[in-house]
Amino acid sequence: MHLAVIEPGTYLDFGDPVPFRDAGVVIEQGLLNDQGEISGRAQAAVRPLSPADFARIVERGLGRDEDVLPRMDSARTAEGFEEEQRPFQHISARERVRQLTNRAVRDRNFRKNVLRAYGERCAITGLRLINGGGRAEVEAAHIRPVEHDGPNIVSNGIALSGTAHWMFDRGLVGIADDLAILVSRQTNDPDAVKSMINVSGKLLAPERLVDRPRAEFLTWHRENSFKL
Contacts by 183-190 with C-beta closer than 8 Å and gap 24+? Predict the structure, then answer.
């Protein structure tokens, strides 16, 4: 029997799922025998992982180009949206461990996972706007912010357009436990805000139940951010 204890707030989802094989090559090389075939070790639920295998797995989980994210830098050209794809960086297992604790890396993977879970669509407005480079102009909002002990997990995130994100962070909109979208009475133009909400009046949540906002995070936002 083995038990893994994860310190609260340290769990990290990979922004890119890591397959067993990539281009025909087994990622976890430690599973191969001397003949290059899959050994019986692959059947073990818990098995040792070499530093090289660890670095290779993390590299593929964290190191890919941000293909689903809108650019946050000045890489755009005069034509608008072209950019070069960055290659994999083959670095040591020690450096990969450092990256796992890096705030920028954790935020990037949080954004990737949230955008994928919501189909790159704003969960409040229902809009899925794609820029000239084929990327969604939508952001990943934390329900309970990291600075207030909110974890970087999909169930603590919502995909929102820039304006919806701004309103959510400032408490002008909130979300009930049944995912109904709430509009603050303190907003200066409630009719305009209500006109932005999708016709269902509810958050357009992911299909997978595990990805949907957890009640504890929604409650925190209503009690600490939402303006009644």
Answer: 184/226, 184/227, 184/228, 185/227, 185/228, 186/227, 186/228
Q: What is the pLDDT of residues 23-80, one digit of tens each?
A: 888 888 888 887 778 888 777 777 888 888 887 787 778 765 555 555 544 444 334 3
Q: CB–CB of 226/182 below 8 Å?
A: yes
Q: Which two tokens stand for residue 222?
A: 């209503």
Q: Tokens 């309970």 identify what position?
A: 144
Task: Answer whether residue 10 is part of any domain.
Answer: no
Sequential DSSP letters for 103-145: HHHHHHHHHHHHHHHTTT--TTT----B-TTS-B--EEEESS-
Number of neighbouring beta carbons within 10 Å of residue 165: 19
**If pLDDT is split at 50, 70 and 90, which confidence band does 93 have?**
low
Element (H, E) at 31: none
Count of structural domains within the chain = 1
195 is a domain residue = yes
- Provide the residue range defining the domain that includes 53: 21-72+84-224
Residues 101-119 have pLDDT tens digits of 666 777 888 888 999 999 9
